[in-house]
Amino acid sequence: MEESSGPGPIKKDALFYGMILAFVAFVLMLVFLGYAMIQSRASSRLAAQLAPQPATTVQTEQWDYSRLHVVKGDDGAEMVLVPAGPFLMGSPPVEGDQDEVPQRGVYVDAFWIDLYEVTFRQYAPFVSATGAPKPVIPVLQDDPAKLMSPEQPVVAVEWTQARAYCRWLEKRLPTEAEWEKASRGDRGAKWPWGPTFGPGLANIQGEEDGYRYTAPPGSFPGGRSAYGVYDMAGNVAEWVADWYDQKYYLGAPFESPTGPTTGKHRVYRGGSWNDTPSDVRSAKRFAAAPHQTSAVIGFRCAKDAAPEKAGSE
Ligand SMILES: [Ca+2]
Question: Does residue 7 sit within a domain?
Fold first, then answer.
C-alpha cells in the first residue's frame, strides 16, 4: 500500500477509490453485524423452544411454612393451627358448580386440623377399644387389600364412625368452612398449592402420579396447602361435620358457619384417587348419606383452638 494520508503526489483517483472502498467495507460490516444479530436471536429462540420445558405452566404459591404452629397429640397425630380470620369460600359462577356459589368472605375462628388423613394404623385401636365396625370396602373391582395396609388412609368408614373416632380422641370433624380454609388458604386458591393443576401435586385418577389407589398420607409434599396440610386434594375424600344443602351458601352465616341444622346427606370434600383435577378443587362439594361407606372416602380430625390458648399450646 502506498501512503494514504496527506496531500502529496498521490493521484486523486486513488484517494477517491480508497474512500469508496472504505465506505463499502463499512457498509458491509454493518450488514454483517446486523445479520449476525438476527441469527443469534433466532437461534436462541430456537434453543428456548427446544429446551425441555420445566413445569412453567403450573403455578404454585411457594407457601411460607416457617411460621406454622404444629403440635403432636397423644394419638401421635400432628395438628396445625389455622389462625382466626376471613377467607374466600366458594367459587365464582364460571369456576365451580352451582352449589359453590356465591363466593363470599367467611370468617372462621382459630382451629387445629390434622396435618394428615387418618390411617388404618391409627384407626385400628379405636375399633379395638370401642367395638366400632371394622372398615369393609363395599365396592371395588380389585382386591380391597390393596387399599387397606396400615400406612394407607382409612376408607370405608361411615360418617358417624368418623365423628366417633375424632370424639374418642377429644377432637371433632372439621366444619365444611374450616376444611375449605385449611385447604385453600385465605385468598381463595383453587387448589391447595395454587391456581393451576399440575402433575405430582396430588393423587388423583390414573397411575401417572404413582398410585392407582390410595397413597400413604404425606406422599405429595408439593401439594401442601397454605397451612402445610397434606393431601387436601385427592388421595381420599374427607368427611366433614356439616349436613349438605345445595343452596346453603345463599343464606349461610358469614361467621363460623356450621352447616344446616338438618339434612339427608353429609358433606365430604377434597375428591379422591378416583377423581379428575376439577373434582379435587378446594371449593368442590360432595355429599353422601351418613351411613354410606366408600373406597374413596376417609377423613381427618380438627379441634377448637381457644383464642387465648392459640399461641401457647
Ligand atoms: Ca392416582
Answer: no
**pLDDT tens column, 78-106:** 999 999 999 999 999 899 999 999 999 99
- CATH of residue 159: 3.90.1580.10
d(CA 104, CA 160): 29
Number of domains in the chain: 1
What is the 158 CA–ligand 1 centroid distance (Å)? 23
Per the CB < 8 A criterion, the answer to whether 57 and 198 are in contact is yes
Distance (angstroms) between ligand 1 centre and the Cα of 209 equals 5
In angstroms, what is the span from residue 237 Cα to ligand 1's centroid?
13
Q: Would you say residue 190 lies in a domain? A: yes
Residue 25 located in a structural domain: no
Burial class (CB in 10 A: 0-12, 13-18, 19+), 263: middle
What's the 93 CA to ligand 1 centre distance in angstroms? 28
Q: Which amino acid is at 66?
A: S
The Å distance, Cα 231 to ligand 1 centre, comes to 12
> pLDDT tens digits for 36-89?
776 767 666 655 555 554 445 677 777 889 889 999 988 889 999 999 999 999
Could you tell me where the beta strands, DSSP code E, fall in the chain? 70-72, 78-82, 85-89, 104-108, 111-114, 237-243, 266-269, 285-288, 297-298, 302-304
Domain that holds residue 87: 70-307
Task: Report the SS3 class of residue 267.
Answer: strand
How many whole angstroms from 92 Cα to the centroid of ligand 1?
28
Q: How many angstroms does the Cα of residue 103 sit away from the middle of ligand 1? A: 29
Chain-centre distance for alpha carbon 3: 78
Q: DSSP label at 172?
A: B
In a domain, 13, yes or no: no
Distance CA 257, CA 262 (A): 14
CA of 276 to the centre of ligand 1 (A): 10
